[in-house]
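Reagents: none. Just compute today. Putative DNA repair helicase RadD.
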Amino acid sequence: MDNDVKYKASLASAAEDLFIEIFCDAFGPEKTKYLFIQYPFVDIYGNRRFIDFALENEEMRIAIEIDGDKFHNPQRVSANKYYDDILKQNSLIFNNWKVYRWAYNQLKNQREKVRDELVTFVGEMSIFRLLDDYLPKQKGKIIELKSHQHSALESLQKMRDSGESIALLYHATGAGKTVTAVSDARNYGKRTLFLAHTRELVSQAKDTFEEIWPEISAGMYVAEQKEKDAYVVCGSVQSVAQNLNQFKSDDFGYIVIVLQRKLY
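Predicted 3D structure written out:
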């Protein structure tokens, strides 16, 4: 197993570590790039939860749950915890996820059988998507914030003037990337879509748009709150991805995507 896979596994529980090893046996270490670890979703009551491992393509979404004995064994956890696990699974199924579960003891004692089942259930790994597949294929460059946000805004404008249409803005947490993105969207002036993985980030972005660009309408598109007709739509990646038929390809002239760091 290569170093990247070892690094990924070190961030999980012992049960999830073992699953990654079996996954590598089944599909090869290079296929771990398709796995989303701790993938966020919202249950039927609007509560934010996480899937142990997720795989996606155009036609299906697969959730893989690894049940450690300490936290999922019905004989060792409280009734409320057990019922909550059932609710999580039912919410995934309700939202058209295929759900597959293995217990830790199965991974330890029936490794080859789990591997064969995994191949049967998941199928061809080449059909699944990477996070990069959600991004438009356009020319561009990476911009790093230097002394202040004005330099980033100037660089973004120079890129547009030279015909480039996509940029990656990166800096430490708390350095004001959202403010920079909102300011640039205002400068550009076109209808905007802001995407993030958490409701908190989406809500913060909406507040920032309303503060910096008060003359336009800003709406939320997350869970049950879907204000798709606002001039600026601040949405969660999962909510928008699940409702792409509600949007046209040319609805937005400016798109901001806040990326989570992938663990590989």
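Residues 59 and 242 are 11 Å apart (CA to CA).
Action item: order primers for follow-up constructs.
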